[in-house]
Amino acid sequence: MASTVSSLGLGSVTTSVAGAMGSSATGAAATAVVTSAVGGPLVMFGIIVAGSAGIGYGVYKGGQAIYSWVND
């Protein structure tokens, strides 16, 4: 899980979330803290997949808006 979080560039996000939960953990330890807090690795995986899909959709819609603005 920590490898996936790191490769997606979400390490700082999980460190921030762990800090908000009162932990001073960083890196893989922060991912472990957040993973256990949300309900385990399957739930964390779902959050990562849903978040990535949401970001992808947002980039797609943003690209459509820019394309329409440029070509109108």
Describe the fold and architecture.
Helices cover 81% and strands 0% of the residues. The radius of gyration is 16 Å and the shape is elongated. With 72 residues, the chain is mainly alpha-helical. The mean pLDDT is 86.
Secondary structure elements and pairings:
Layout: H1 2-7, H2 11-20, H3 28-38, H4 41-71
Helix pairs in contact: 2-3
Q: Tell me the strand percentage band.
A: under 5%
Helix- and strand-based class?
mainly alpha
- Shape field: elongated
Q: Terminal Cα separation, in Å?
A: 44 Å
Q: In terms of per-residue confidence, which ranges show pLDDT below 50 for 5 or more consecutive residues? A: none
Main sheet: strands, sense, barrel: none
- What is the share of helical residues? over 70%
In N-to-C order, the SSE pattern is HHHH
Radius of gyration: 16 Å
What is the overall pLDDT average? 86
What keywords describe this structure?
mainly alpha, 81% helix, 4 helices, 72 residues, elongated
Tell me briefly what this model is:
The protein is mainly alpha-helical and 72 residues long.
